[in-house]
Amino acid sequence: MKGNQKRSLFLMIEVMDEAKIKQVIEQKQAEDDYNDCYLVDIEYNKVKNHLTLYIGSDSGMSLKKCQAFSRHVEAYLDESLMLGEKYELDVSSPGVGRPLKLRRQYQNNIGRDLKIQKTDGSRAKGELIEVLEDTIRIEQIRGKKKTGAILEIPFEEISTALVQIKF
Prior knowledge:
CATH architecture of the largest domain: 2-Layer Sandwich
Mean pLDDT: 89
GO cellular component, one term: cytosol
Largest sheet: 5 strands, antiparallel
Order of helices and strands: HEEHEHEEEEE
Domain Ribosome maturation factor RimP N-terminal: 36-96
Structural class: alpha+beta
Number of helices: 3
CATH superfamily of the largest domain: K homology (KH) domain
Low-confidence stretches: 1-13
Protein name: Ribosome maturation factor RimP
Strand order of the largest sheet: 7-6-5-4-8
Number of domains: 2
Strand content: 35-45%
Shape: elongated
Subcellular location: Cytoplasm
Helix content: 25-40%
CATH topology of the largest domain: GMP Synthetase, Chain A, domain 3
Radius of gyration: 19 Å
Distance between the termini: 58 Å
Pfam family, one: DUF150_C
């Protein structure tokens, strides 16, 4: 096998593994206590063999929910040996330091301040007031005060959006 073929095969295996992890998460989501949960992101560090799953919940992510997902995924990993016998697994809520990725996350953060980096390099800051099909609406903030100006920003123009903590 040539170098490019090996790399393509390796990437295909990684995609298949990620799809399987998503399927395992979906099995847990089908249970009544976890059907408001959703997978936000998967990170894998090959060097440390460390898998991190970020899971959100419409009703708020609790320690109990994180533990349940962790045990469920761990049971699969132990049985399948997808990551071998020695691996690290972390299951966490995304937290305020991580960018919003899913429309559902925006919906859960209405009323909170966002700091937005747009794809054109410009920035916006404001209170998230509405989440529509393809856009969000924020009431712009300059300094610490709301300006009253409403900005409508399409999701496709958002590079990163971070929830800002008010003190």
